[in-house]
């Protein structure tokens, strides 16, 4: 494979490691620092990504554009890229519904570029065997080849765009929604004065749930702001299939209440802090109804 230039949008906690994996596979990875935060600058610098300045220059210089961003901005980012006359391969690796992936695909292909649908499952790419990038679309194999020999496991699901997003939606429908559920249960038990009794019963009949709630607070609360859009995309996916969307709209509500924990990772938020925010926000909402 000839060396490709990959334009990364954007080097967030996950995206920067996907970019680093592409670089490890032999690609030249660039990003645009214009209007990006210092934290983004620092992440990209640590991974050795090349700053090309602005989006216009990034689009002009890229063979492949890889979008890893919060789902609610994914369609607009694709439109912005295509307004700059991109003609390479656009990879949307965001947590979006198949319908949103189709919308983005139409934007990209009507603008004259190739489209590949992507779905990331796993944590930021730090070691082998933890993270997979699922790809679907006619040029998926070309994109998968970029990551050959890297820590990222790129897997092709076929030529039909939307399949990678559907897999991401069905996978996250359990992992992230169940975090929201167990945190909501801890808040409810606290408000009803039975939290200690619940923990004791869990130790007898569901021993994994107590530790699961602690881990959910530590891992999901700092990312709750990003999960809001993802839960809405999952709800839309269920609704489009004629299945109830209420599970994930409720999870949306839980994560919206936890948005104040954004990027609170050092130290990670304590379960007691998360439960207190859920309880307080619940009381405030109830009092205004």
Q: Can you describe what's shown?
A:
- By secondary structure, the chain is of the alpha/beta class.
- The protein has two domains: 5-159, NAD(P)-binding Rossmann-like Domain (Rossmann fold, 3-Layer(aba) Sandwich), CATH 3.40.50; 166-288, N-(1-d-carboxylethyl)-l-norvaline Dehydrogenase, domain 2.
- It is built from twelve helices and eight strands.
- It has helices at 15-24, 38-46, 55-61, 74-83, 98-110, 140-146, 163-191, 195-205, 208-220, 224-240, 246-257, 271-288; strands at residues 5-9, 28-31, 50-51, 64-67, 89-92, 114-121, 132-136, 153-158.
- The chain has an eight-stranded mixed sheet with strand order 3-2-1-4-5-6-7-8, with helices on both faces.
- Helix 6 links the parallel strand 7 and strand 8 (153-158).
- Helix 7 crosses helix 11, helix 7 crosses helix 12 (271-288) and helix 10 packs antiparallel against helix 11 (246-257).
Short descriptors:
single chain, alpha/beta, 12 helices, N-(1-d-carboxylethyl)-l-norvaline Dehydrogenase, domain 2, 13% strand, eight-stranded mixed beta sheet, 289 residues, Rossmann fold
End-to-end C-alpha gap: 61 Å
User: Which architecture of the largest domain does the CATH hierarchy give at level 2?
Assistant: 3-Layer(aba) Sandwich
The count of β-strands is 8
What name goes with the CATH superfamily of the largest domain? NAD(P)-binding Rossmann-like Domain
> What amount of the residues lies in strands?
5-15%
The Rg value, from CA coordinates, equals 20 Å
Poorly predicted regions = none
Total helical segments: 12
Kindly state the mean pLDDT as a whole number?
Answer: 95
Named CATH topology of the largest domain: Rossmann fold
Shape: globular
**How are the strands of the largest sheet arranged?**
3-2-1-4-5-6-7-8
Task: Give the biggest beta sheet.
Answer: 8 strands, mixed
């Amino acid at each position: 494979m000839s060396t490709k230039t990959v334009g990364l949008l954007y080097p967030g906690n996950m995206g920067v490691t996907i970019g680093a994996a592409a670089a490890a596979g032999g690609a030249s990875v660039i990003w645009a620092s214009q209007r990006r935060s210092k934290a983004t600058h620092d992440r990209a610098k640590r991974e050795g990504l090349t700053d090309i300045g602005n989006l216009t220059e990034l689009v002009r210089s890229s063979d492949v554009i890889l979008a890893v961003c919060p789902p609610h901005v994914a369609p607009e980012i694709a439109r912005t890229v295509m307004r700059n006359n991109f003609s390479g391969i656009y990879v949307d690796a965001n947590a979006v519904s198949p319908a949103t992936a189709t919308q983005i695909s139409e934007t990209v292909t009507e603008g004259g570029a190739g489209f590949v649908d992507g779905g990331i499952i796993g944590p930021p790419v730090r070691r082998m065997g933890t993270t997979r990038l699922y790809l679907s679309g006619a040029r998926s194999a070309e994109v998968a080849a970029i990551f050959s020999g890297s820590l990222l496991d790129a897997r092709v699901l076929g030529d039909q765009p939307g399949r990678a997003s559907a897999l991401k939606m069905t996978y996250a429908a359990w992992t992230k929604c169940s975090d929201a559920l167990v945190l909501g249960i801890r808040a409810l038990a606290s408000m009803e004065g039975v939290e200690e009794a619940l923990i004791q019963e869990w130790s007898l009949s569901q021993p994994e749930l107590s530790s699961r709630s602690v881990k959910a607070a530590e891992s999901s609360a700092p990312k709750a702001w990003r999960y809001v859009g993802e839960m809405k995309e999952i709800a839309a996916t269920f609704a489009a299939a004629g299945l109830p969307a209420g599970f994930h709209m409720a999870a949306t509500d839980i994560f919206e209440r936890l948005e104040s924990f954004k990027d609170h990772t050092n130290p990670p938020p304590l379960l007691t802090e998360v439960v207190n925010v859920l309880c307080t926000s619940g009381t405030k909402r109830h009092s205004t109804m």
